[in-house]
Design brief:
Length: 233
């Protein structure tokens, strides 16, 4: 059955909700840069927002363009500042921008990165990006999600440098997830998966993989790509 935008959004949010270890590990990696005035791009229904709000020394402004997601966000996180719009609706000087699984949804990503730079340059702040990686993993479900692309280290670093950023940290993320994604979504052409599969991977496999990637050796490639870049004047 072909997915609709509504079903793929629900699928993506359900997967993120089930992946508690994955979500918390990601926030832990990004947390050193998320201090002061921080913009969260593409807040969705607020699943990552909850994690960011718990960080110390952070003044968080969430941004989400989808009206339905904004309505759900406000029901559960009524005290959290939320702009219904895009980065074009934000002004001022900021210490950091965080974007988790958002940039791949933006057709003109180079223009988006330039706007990030303009908001960060006066404070020489950081942009903290997490995106799907490796073009060979682009599958039918990526198209269902509204992904325009998957990134490599080179394609993303080139775009960031062109926008005015200096790369401080960049690594592939979730080595075993690369093979799991290729098998299920590229080879078998699946268009969904079950929450219990996500929970099994998140509880039994991901903690071991993450420990190896962060404490022993960064992976040569992975399902996702994490980058921290600084806006230099």
């Amino acid at each position: 059955m072909t997915s609709t935008p509504e079903t793929t959004a629900n699928f993506e949010f359900s997967a993120l909700s089930a992946a508690k270890n994955y979500r918390r590990a990601l926030v832990q990696e990004l947390s050193p840069q998320l201090k002061g005035r921080v913009i969260e791009i593409g807040a969705g229904i607020g699943q990552m927002t909850r994690e960011f709000m718990a960080l110390p020394d952070i003044s968080l402004q969430s941004v989400e363009p989808d009206p339905a997601f904004c309505a759900e966000f406000r029901k559960s996180l009524s005290q959290q500042p939320l702009i219904q719009g895009t980065i074009q609706d934000v002004s001022g000087d900021w210490d950091a921008i965080v974007s988790v699984n958002v940039l791949e949804h933006i057709e003109k990503d180079q223009e988006e990165l330039v706007m990030y730079y303009n908001l960060l340059k006066n404070k020489q702040g950081t942009v903290n990006i997490f995106v799907p990686a490796r073009p060979e993993l682009y599958a039918p479900i990526d198209k269902d999600f509204g992904h325009f692309r998957r990134y490599t280290k080179k394609t993303l670093s080139d775009k960031l440098i062109k926008a005015g950023f200096t790369i401080e940290k960049m690594r592939y993320y979730n080595f075993t997830g690369y093979f799991a994604w290729w098998l299920k979504f590229c080879l078998l052409k699946a268009r969904s998966f079950k929450s219990r599969d996500v929970v099994l991977y998140d509880r039994a496999i991901f903690p071991v993989v993450h420990f190896m990637e962060t404490k022993i050796c960064p992976p040569p490639w992975g399902q996702s790509l994490l980058v921290v870049a600084r806006a230099k004047k």
